[in-house]
Design goal:
Layout (H helix, E strand, L loop, with lengths): L15 H7 L2 H4 L3 H17 L5 H19 L12 H18 L8 H37 L4 E6 L2 E7 H26 L18 H7 L10 H6 L2 H27 L7 E2 L18 H24 L14 H24 L1 E2 L1 H7 L7 H10 L4 H18 L8 H7 L13 H7 L8 H17 L1
Antiparallel strand pairs: 1-2, 3-4
The structure holds arginine.
Arginine binds next to helix 6.
Length: 462
């Protein structure tokens, strides 16, 4: 028999080429458990509306339970001939219950409100999964910060030595951006907790169904949509999800790029664990940061998923258009990519070794304490404009003689400025420079300890 849900007014079945183009079952099959949950909820409101007897309802639920079990163990699957997951599952139900009962479930719903609902349910589950994986990565970063509370490193701007910072301070900066990503996911979830079920094709249902009951049944905390046209046609929840996952990718790529640089021979700031790095098929000595590189690469893919989706949505008239079938693969892919990437990335971060000596050796290099000279002068009452020039003259003197700031003699200091008494040496040491930046958010060990505690509290309350 014809599996299509719309055959009656057509003299001919679909052309092979159309069937191939139209099919989505190969990618929307992952929504099957959600479709069945939706069907159960729908059967209950049909019953409440007097359109299914108690007996029919219980046989319907039993049929759906059976179908669910058969989907779970793989004994029932959709085929290309089914077109999409909804059609396939209707076929499965008809096969189990016969046409008289099985044919009653479709009343008052459309694939348009079904897909809009199931897609939300799927993404909400995956927002939680991805949120959990991000928390694990934050845990690894917290672990790194905790294990190295007092390691100094060169802080950089423009990738040039800027000022010394604590390694823990730097690592926790990445944890902060991930905290915002996790928060974005939670806020998105709250906005998305609204069910389009009951919107029908676009106009709502004439059958006296209760969309609020379906929403409650399916775990949509904020009830059903206020407008059935919006419910079936809007996909900003998908675009926003794609943005958040792209942003996560971009944030990971920034950590990744640093790991790649830190892991070079020239930097030698970190060593990656063997289990989280790869070798070369020709160069026996190679140990490559492939996880970080894949993170960097996949971030491009995640951005592509977002931009592709935005392009699909642009100028699309209301209400449902088949273009919207193109909304699923990009974000399914974004979920899949992050769900394989994040555990590997977390493993890499949790197991890397920090080369403390190397970082601390370079922390004061490149005249990174010049700002400390200027700020010390300010504390002696020198205007900052003058102080900046005096410190700059110190750097110039050092460059001429190929030395670092702390190697300037008392005479050289005095020659540059009368304000540069030998006491200036107290700030020409990394520990002193770090400790002096003790205000909120700063790089002093005491300030970084506060940041660590805040990230840990944030993690514990997520
Ligand atoms: N497979 C479709 C999608 O993913 C489901 C809705 C189809 N509706 C329709 N009228 N053809 O968007």
């Amino acid at each position: 028999s014809d599996v299509r849900l719309w055959g009656a007014r057509f003299a001919d079945g679909p052309a092979e080429a159309l069937a191939k183009l139209s099919a989505s079952v190969h990618f929307d099959w992952r929504l099957a458990p959600y479709d069945i949950a939706g069907s159960r909820a729908h059967a209950r409101v049909l019953n409440k509306a007097g359109l299914l007897t108690e007996d029919e309802l219980s046989r319907m639920i039993a049929g759906l339970d059976q179908l669910e079990a058969d989907v779970a163990d793989g004994s029932f699957t959709g085929t290309i001939a089914d077109e999409d997951v909804h059609t396939a599952l209707e076929r499965g139900l008809l096969e189990r219950l016969g046409p008289d009962l099985g044919g009653k479930l479709r009343a008052g719903r459309s694939r348009n409100d079904q897909i809009a609902t199931l897609f939300r349910m799927y993404l909400r589950d995956h927002a939680r999964i991805i949120g959990g994986l991000i928390a694990e990565l934050q845990g690894a970063l917290v672990g790194l910060a905790e294990a190295h509370p007092d390691v100094a490193m060169p802080g950089r701007t423009h990738l040039q030595h800027a000022q010394p910072v604590l390694f823990a301070h730097h690592v926790l900066a990445h944890a902060q951006s991930l905290s915002r990503d996790a928060e974005r996911l939670r806020q998105w979830d709250e906005r998305t907790a609204v069910s389009p079920y009951g919107s029908g094709a676009l106009a709502g249902s004439s059958l006296g169904l209760d969309p609020e009951a379906v929403a409650a049944d399916l775990g949509f905390e904020r009830g059903s949509v206020g407008n059935s046209i919006d419910g079936t046609a809007s996909r900003d929840f998908v675009a926003e999800f794609a943005f958040i996952t792209a942003m996560i990718g971009v944030n990971l790529s920034r950590i990744a790029e640093e790991v790649i640089i830190w892991n070079t021979k020239e930097f030698s700031f970190v060593t990656l664990h063997d289990a989280f790095s790869t070798g070369s098929s020709i160069m026996p000595q190679k140990k490559n940061p492939d996880i970080a590189e894949l993170a960097r690469g996949k971030s491009g893919r995640l951005i592509g998923n977002l931009t592709g989706l935005m392009a699909t949505l642009k100028a699309l008239p209301l209400a449902y258009n088949r273009d919207l079938q193109e909304d699923k693969e990009p974000v399914f892919d974004s979920c899949d990519q992050l769900e394989v990437l994040l555990p590997a990335f977390t493993g890499m971060m949790a197991t890397l070794t920090v080369n403390r000596e190397r970082m601390e050796e370079l922390a004061p290099a490149g005249f990174s304490l010049a700002t400390d000279i200027a700020e010390w002068l300010v504390k002696q009452g020198v205007p900052f404009r003058v102080a900046h020039e005096v410190a700059g003259a110190c750097v110039k003197e050092c460059e001429q003689h190929g030395i670092e700031l702390d190697e300037l003699t008392d005479e050289q200091f005095a020659k540059i400025s009368e304000h540069l008494t030998p006491e200036v040496r107290t700030v020409l040491d990394v520990a002193g420079a770090l400790a002096s930046r003790s205000g909120r958010g700063g790089t002093a060990p005491s300030a970084v300890a506060v940041q660590l505690a805040e990230v840990k509290t944030d993690l514990a309350t997520q």
